[in-house]
Amino acid sequence: MTPFFNWVHLWNTGAAFSLFANGGGWQRYFFIGVALLMSVALTRLIFNKVSKRDGISYGLILGGAVGNLIDRLFRGYVVDSLHLGWQTWQLPVFNIADIAITLGVILLLLSNLQVSMIPNLPGSK
């Protein structure tokens, strides 16, 4: 499509960036289990009293995890279709769910970094 972006169609049986894609089949059930556990944990976190920023982060991660989980349950693999690269620099193929997970993790890290950089006020714990 462009010199830096292409639509492709890739069946990813592994994790993000095709990690463990050649695992022989065990990874499908492993990643389904991990996604289910993470979905339950993130849902519980969202319904606890968390900041709006953390809630958005958890929601992005949850949405991406559920999106990939649905693909994995019904297809046995995740469909990746976005490819970015320029000349010899190439990113692995990914999908919208991967973007949501990555953005959620980045926002969560930035939120925690910002909180840890605020000095303790006198009289606070």
From TrEMBL:
It catalyses: Release of signal peptides from bacterial membrane prolipoproteins. Hydrolyzes -Xaa-Yaa-Zaa-|-(S,diacylglyceryl)Cys-, in which Xaa is hydrophobic (preferably Leu), and Yaa (Ala or Ser) and Zaa (Gly or Ala) have small, neutral side chains. GO terms for cellular component: plasma membrane. It is a multi-pass membrane protein. The keyword rRNA-binding does not apply. InterPro entries: Peptidase_A8. Pathway: Protein modification; lipoprotein biosynthesis (signal peptide cleavage). One of its GO terms (biological process) is proteolysis. Coiled coil: none annotated. Its EC number is 3.4.23.36. This protein specifically catalyzes the removal of signal peptides from prolipoproteins. HAMAP family: LspA. This is Lipoprotein signal peptidase. It comes from Idiomarina aquatica. The gene is lspA.
